[in-house]
Request: fold
Amino acid sequence: MMDVGRHPKIKLFAYSEVEEVSGYVGNFQVKVRKKARYVREKDCNACGECVKVCPVAVPDEFQQGFSSRKAIYLQLPQAVPSAYLIDMQTCMGNNPIACGKCAEVCEKKCIDYDMQDEIIDLKVGAIVVATGMDVYDPTELDEYGYRSFENVITSMEFERLICASGATQGHFIRPTDHKTPKSIGFIQCVGSRSEKRGKSYCSNICCMNTIKDSVLLCDHYPGTEIKVFYIDIRAFGKAFEDLYRRSKQEGVKYIRGLPGEVVEDPKTKNLIVTVENTTTGEVERHEIEMLVLSVGVLPRQDGSLIQKLLTLSLTADGFFMESHPKLKPVDAPTKGVFFAGCAEFPKDVKDSVTQAGAAAARSEIILNADRIKVEAITSMVDKDMCTACEICYRACPYKCILVDREKKTPAEIIEAACAGCGTCGAECPFGAVTMRHFTDTQIIAQIEAILEENPQEKTVVFACNWCSYAGGDMAGISRLQYPPNQRIIKTMCSGRVDEEFVLYAFKLGAPMVLVSGCHFADCHYIDANRWTVKRVEKLWDKLEKMGIRPERLQLEWISAAEGQKFAKVMKEVEEMRKKVTKEEIEFTKKALADLKFKGEKRRAKLEADKAKMEKVVV
Amino acid sequence: MADKKNPGKENDLRIGVFVCECGLNIAGSLDCEEVRKSAETLPDVAVAVLNKYTCADPGQNEIKRYIKEHNLNRVVVASCSPRMHEPTFRACVADVGVNPYLLEMVNLREHCSWVHLHDRKAATEKAKDMVKVGVARARYLDPQIERTVPVTKAALVIGGGVAGIQTSLDLADSGIQVYLVEKGPSIGGIMAALDKTYPTMDCSI
Reply:
């Protein structure tokens, strides 16, 4: 921590938040809000005179509420930067100044009640997301009695009770009588590995954390009776099994089974834990003086802003999704963005440090290059075809299109900022936008090839590159079997799927069309898939009006992790396909016989106008 | 004037199709030779080749050799997911002067052989169809130019827990300017709130 504070190449913005990110790999522009501390960070030498006179006392969050702090405070004794700050919510100093005592005693005169937030503009080439984790709050698990019984605490609270810099100077006492407990229980998997409450994943760190806690207790208070209630102990890492063995040798009892009930003895405030010991198959009752809930790790609850700013996705567990779970575990799908630590998944200190090194190395690949390649798959506009209607601008998630309807300035793509979703191309009513590498011509050629032979047996599937196509890959990797009747056309984003692609497939005799993309929060192009929904809904109306069953066009959100869902959807769509009759297909072909591509229409109009002009001139 | 760099604008298309067996991953559940034969009959296909492992060096060398010998200007690799090996094959064709965007991949493994393990005939038919769609797309591929941009030699690290601290130090030690943004008043994160850390039982701060 200290090294960060004094490193000449690190500029630390504490008490600050990232507010805006624009640009692209190698060239991000970032706005950071440095919140007012009301104490000038550079001048404060943390002498602590201010704290002595501050009349306010509030629970100390860092000490898990076991002690209090003042309105002017240091978050922790070893804080970096080592500068106080004022919590204006509780301070009596600001507007009107009712107290002002701290300012009076501050020799360095570094307290400023009128300090304002600062906005700082930064330019960077790479971004590492190390936003960390939250801790599960076990209040909802009534059976464990957290918050009902004072002597039930969480593993985070345990840390502050056993730590020498904690509220009790490291004397481990129980809250009700401030005595050191002679028997302590630990309940594992609190908020983890449960389909019903908390999270379904294993939080990775809690088994070893409890083992560590048990060894600490044995060291500090020999003879303490310690019982650990668990499902199974996961001691998989280097030197982990040794520590587990040491804990058992010290006399810690491991009881396989999660308690069904915890009640408090009203007199002694001891806790009676009822558990089915699954090793013996018997229901046991254990009276213990203190109970520690080994709470799980949650994704950051305030992560949505960073997710939106950096166009990141989440996996089903709520953590940030990596570019590839095995081959690019540190890279975000957004180029130039990397993950370190628990932002990606729960991990312990060693794994966090390992991944941090990897994120630094991955960033350096970009940062040490003089120039880097940018996305080649971008949009381009045929200015003659464009009517400057601004629809593309409205659809663009990145707002990287310059166009002015009033001045009739045709659209122009800012290519360096274009990420290549293709939504503009699909929305353009005049066929003026071409999506590089996913042109109309290419996609139409694919539709034609699919439906050239036995079209009645096939479903045309549009799958986005990042999620649903990858979900198909996951189905394959998992060897999930489904019928062989679907043909996939990959686009970068489902936002690229033009309504005329769907209609054209129906015109050529496709019984079914499926459009699939990322779940809403997961779209790799911010929210381009919202346009997919609008378009598909419009298409359903259109089909219905034409007398075509709208169910023949399906829309599904399938994430890269959802191989099972992909296979399930494939099976369902195949069942639907079987129900589409020959007559229906023939009817549809006739109903769409006059379908013309929008580009053709626009071109025909331009030519007609030109001919008219020539006539007038003649 | 004939523009050799951009054959899409001419009608002189010469497509090479490379069907990968991927050991038994693909060949185990569909008839790769039949897929290859069918590919030969597709429009503008100059040559269709079977490989055991197209991604391995011998497979890539085959692609390069055929590009040179048959003057290929489009390449279709029918193997695994492009999410896996598109960068491999793009680099491979670029090595012998073909624009990397003139490569098309057909996902025979993840999207066909692995999901139709028990119906060889149907899997083979689907694979033939998939290659046909790939070739149809390849006929309209255009070369693309990957532009380059300068890089700002600085990094933003969001979050000052143990991971953010370590990333910042590693980057800074290698000479890169780091901006570390921490939401709270001090860095340290969860780690700073811990007493000891496993498995070595040393202090967290």
